Amino acid sequence: MIMLQHSSILIVDDVAENISLLFEFLMSHNFEVSVAENGESALEVIEEYPPNLILLDVMMPGIDGFETCRRIKANPKTQDIPIIFMTALSDTVDKVKGLELGAVDYVTKPFQQEEVLARINVHLTVYHLQTALEARNQELEAKNTELDAFAHTVAHDLKNPLSAMINLAYLLINSKEVVNFTDKQREYLNYMLLAGRQMDGIISALLLLAKVSKQEIYVSPLDMRAIFEQAQQRIQPLIEEYQARIVFPREWPLSYGYAPWVEEVWANYLSNALKYGGRPPILELGGIFLKKSNKVQFWVRDNGEGLPVEKLSKLFTPFTRLHRSQSQGHGLGLSIVQRIIEKLGGEVGVESQVGQGSTFYFSLPASEN
């Protein structure tokens, strides 16, 4: 609950009668009230003791209310303090000019005390809410920074011992020396190797997700054929395992992006299409220029079972798998794809029908070359 009582208000006016009337009225409503008789002294008070709200007269000796307002709003330390101008009833031009300079409202002379109080309460409420929100945002930003640093450190610290475990399991399984493992022991070693690789994949995905959120990159025209070939080499063992056939387009439309991230997109889309495509998987790749949006849409079409409508909207949600019955993957790949493509100015999506396979697509800004 916001307590408006005891909020500090500065009255800036050179007319003693106005000051006295407002001072007594606001004090009776438990506000902390201070007074300045001209713009110069008001600026000194505000710099030393910034109030929560300012009631500012337009016509004053020395610098007038407009100039005083301009200087307050030009100072980063005081620019967020709400200012309510006090003007004569007929001075419409003054009211407009005051609002253009950054004032939040105005009250007219002669004062209607209840109207003044209502306007003060409204703007103090907004001011306190904004102040609380900014403080909360700063607190959250600090905590997020701390959490990111911690997660990044933990992920890197986990990778080294995990890699050692994976390599040791692989060496034991493929050792040319005679090792009298029982069938059950070999089964355990294979499980350890698989689990280690899955954990390594999760850590790598989390690190990439954090990098995509914060890394500043520069986009450039893409050699999509070369990028795809790099992605294909990364998952070649999977292609061979599933004995997949991939149908390539004759030409790749030109687009803009960041090659290392686009390679990740292709690697994720291809891995999913291989795992959840037909047996054997047949993957059709393509790209088309979309004139209306000035983007290029790329896609991977598989010959799998397809997906029901209720699952489509959840596919790009972190930790969601395409098929619950299959334990492959960790459910981060498609969410990373979405983060990458959105940061590159494109969109992701899927079209699918049960029994007719699925088409996963992404778009990128078109290249003019």
Would you kindly provide a brief summary of this structure?
The protein has 369 residues and is of the alpha/beta class. The chain has helices spanning 16-28, 39-48, 65-74, 92-100, 113-173, 183-214, 224-234, 236-242, 259-276, 309-312, 333-343, and strands at residues 8-12, 32-36, 53-57, 83-88, 105-109, 220-221, 245-247, 256-257, 282-290, 295-301, 348-352, 358-365.
Characteristics:
single chain, 369 residues, alpha/beta, Rossmann fold, Heat Shock Protein 90, 3 domains, five-stranded parallel beta sheet, five-stranded mixed beta sheet, 50% helix
Total strands = 12
Radius of gyration: 33 Å
Output mean pLDDT: 86
Fraction in beta strands: 15-25%
Describe the biggest sheet? 5 strands, parallel
CATH class of the largest domain: Alpha Beta
CATH topology description of the largest domain: Heat Shock Protein 90
**CATH homologous superfamily of the largest domain - what is it?**
Histidine kinase-like ATPase, C-terminal domain
Count of separate structural domains: 3
Q: Unreliable runs, pLDDT <50, ≥5 residues?
A: 324-330
What spatial form do the alpha-carbon principal axes imply? elongated
- Share in helix: 40-55%
Separation of termini? 59 Å
Indicate the structural class: alpha/beta
Number of helices: 11
Give the strand order of the largest sheet, numbering strands 1, 2, ... along the chain: 2-1-3-4-5
What order do the helices and strands follow?
EHEHEHEHEHHEHHEEHEEHHEE
In CATH, the architecture of the largest domain is 2-Layer Sandwich
